[in-house]
Structure formats: C-alpha cells, structure tokens
Design a protein that fits this description.
Distance between the termini: 29 Å
Largest sheet: 4 strands, antiparallel
Low-confidence stretches: 182-206
Mean pLDDT: 85
Shape: globular
Length: about 210
C-alpha cells in the first residue's frame, strides 16, 4: 500500500486586481535591474502561515482553524507597500512596508495558534510581511518603488500549491473575511502600526518558509 500523497498548503493574503497589478509593475521594474524569475501576476500573494505537505484527510482540520480565526476579532486594515528589498542568501526580491499594521502579525499569530492546537507544525519565528516578486535574482543596490501603494486587507485564504512545467500554480480552497471593529469597516488600521526593519529574520537572516 502506498502512502497518501500530501497537499502543499498555506494561508495567505491574496491581492485584488489593482494590488496585483501594482505588485507586478514593481516586479517588472526590479527585474530590469536584478534579472531572475518573475512571479506571475496571478500568483502574487503574502504568506501568513505555511503548512507544507498535509495529508488530504487533515484538510478539514486546516479549514476548522481558519473558521476559528475568521470568527475572531482580527480587524481589516491597510498595509502600505513602500519598499523593495532583496535577501542575498536566497536571491529573492520582495515587496513590503516599512511600517506594518499590528493587525497583520496578530492575524498570523492567531492562525499559527489555531493550527498548532490541531497538531500542525508551524514555524515559531516572527511574521515577516513580504510578497515575493523575483526568485534567482541578483541583489542590486538602490532598489526602490516608483511610488507607494495601499494593500487593503479584508480577508485571508487557504491555498494549495501545485508544481508544473510552468512553475507553481495555486488553487484557492477557502476564503474568510476579517471582522470589522465595532462602528463599521476599518479604513485604516485599528491599532498603531509598528516599524519592522530587520524584524522577523532568523539567526542567519533567513526569511520564513514560503510556498
């Protein structure tokens, strides 16, 4: 009898069309300097929790964790994307914000806790809000966005990564809205943003697991 094949799963923020277009424009701009492999526009995202290979029989447990977090008190917010950086050790160019809404690490922490309660092994290092733009890139100095842009965060998804000849493709298995604070939908962050330059790296500057 053969072992059951796992499904490569992760929770993420998935950009709307406007944000995906802005991220892809930033990726194309960086590609002119750094080369490497562009992330396709339809696959751009920001990982919240990486589960890795999960037995199909455990999918319901991942969905239950998301239901618990979606029913919680993590509010929508807005992340301002205003920086492009490169991790030299793995040649990844990524986009993020110089100040991170407190709601984002709260969401990532809530997901990690709910998943660990159900027996999933999730990395314990702090959350780093980043969207991968390029892989196998040359890390050039002076990378910068043409202009900052806003990423409204109103929900999160569970996605499955599938590898093929053209690279990874993703199926969205579920989507959960974030609960607005009392008084209506948040147009800005309900809690103060925090500066995160240099936060969330491992001892050797490693980023968290990505998909």
């Amino acid at each position: 009898m053969t072992a059951e094949a796992g499904r490569r799963l992760f929770f993420a923020l998935w950009p709307d069309a406007a944000v995906a277009a802005a991220l892809y424009a930033a990726a194309r701009q960086a590609h002119r300097t750094c080369g490497g492999r562009l992330t396709r526009r339809d696959t751009l995202h920001m990982t919240l929790a990486f589960l890795g290979d999960v037995a199909a029989a455990r999918l319901d447990q991942a969905l239950a964790a998301a239901e618990k977090v979606g029913a919680g008190d993590t509010a929508p917010c807005v992340l301002t994307i205003d920086r492009i950086e490169c991790w030299r050790h793995n040649h990844i160019v990524w986009a993020g914000g110089s100040r991170m809404p407190a709601e984002l690490p709260a969401l990532a922490d809530a997901l990690a806790a709910a998943l660990r309660e159900r027996g999933f092994r999730i990395e314990s290092r702090p959350f780093v809000a980043h969207a991968t733009l390029l892989r196998q890139a040359y890390c050039a100095a002076g990378l910068a966005l043409a202009a900052p842009f806003a990423w409204p965060v109103g929900d999160f998804v569970l996605a499955e990564s599938k590898l093929g000849g053209a690279g990874a493709s993703y199926d969205i298995l579920g989507r959960w809205p974030l609960s607005p604070p009392l008084g209506g939908v948040a147009l800005q962050c309900a809690r103060p943003a925090i500066s995160w330059h240099g936060v969330g790296m491992g001892k050797q500057g490693d980023p968290p697991n990505d998909d």
